[in-house]
């Protein structure tokens, strides 16, 4: 198990980014959360197998077709291990 925290900047709010991230993370078997930030970005905490995390990170750099991703700030973290699924956090 590995984990990362990421902040996605660009035109990422109001374009279905969070729900698309949930669907994609579930496909990769990841747990964690996604939420909007007050600054207009999207924040992600993801945990799972290294290869799945890498694929999810690659997707975050593109996002859904309605989004425009300008930057992804990613930090590798220690997994917390208490998330049961991947969901939208508020």
**Strand segment count:** 5
Q: Structural class, please?
A: alpha+beta
What is the N-to-C succession of helices and strands? EHEEHEE
Question: What count of domains describes the coordinates?
Answer: 1
Give the number of helices.
Answer: 2
Reading side by side through the largest sheet, how are the strands ordered? 4-1-3-2-5
Estimated share of beta-strand residues: 35-45%
Structure description:
Its EC number is 3.6.1.7. Keywords: Hydrolase. This is Acylphosphatase. GO terms for molecular function: acylphosphatase activity. The protein is an alpha+beta fold. It has one domain (2-88): Alpha-Beta Plaits (2-Layer Sandwich), CATH 3.30.70. The protein contains two helices and five strands; from the N terminus they run βαββαββ. Strands 4-1-3-2-5 form a five-stranded mixed sheet. The chain is globular.
Features:
alpha+beta, Alpha-Beta Plaits, 5-stranded mixed β-sheet, 24% helix, 40% strand, acylphosphatase activity, Acylphosphatase-like_dom_sf, EC 3.6.1.7, Acylphosphatase_CS
Question: Could you give a quick summary of the protein structure above?
Answer:
With 90 residues, this protein is of the alpha+beta class.
List the helices and strands and how they pair.
Blueprint: E1 2-11, H1 17-27, E2 31-36, E3 42-48, H2 50-60, E4 68-77, E5 86-88
């Amino acid at each position: 198990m590995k984990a990362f925290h990421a902040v996605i900047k660009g035109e990422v709010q109001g374009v279905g980014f969070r729900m698309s991230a949930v669907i994609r993370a579930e496909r990769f078997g990841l747990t964690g959360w996604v939420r909007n930030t007050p600054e207009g970005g999207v924040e992600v905490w993801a945990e799972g197998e290294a290869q799945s995390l890498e694929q999810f990170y690659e997707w975050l750099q593109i996002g859904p077709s309605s989004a425009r991703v300008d930057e992804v700030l990613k930090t590798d973290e220690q997994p917390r291990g208490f998330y049961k699924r991947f969901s939208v956090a508020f």
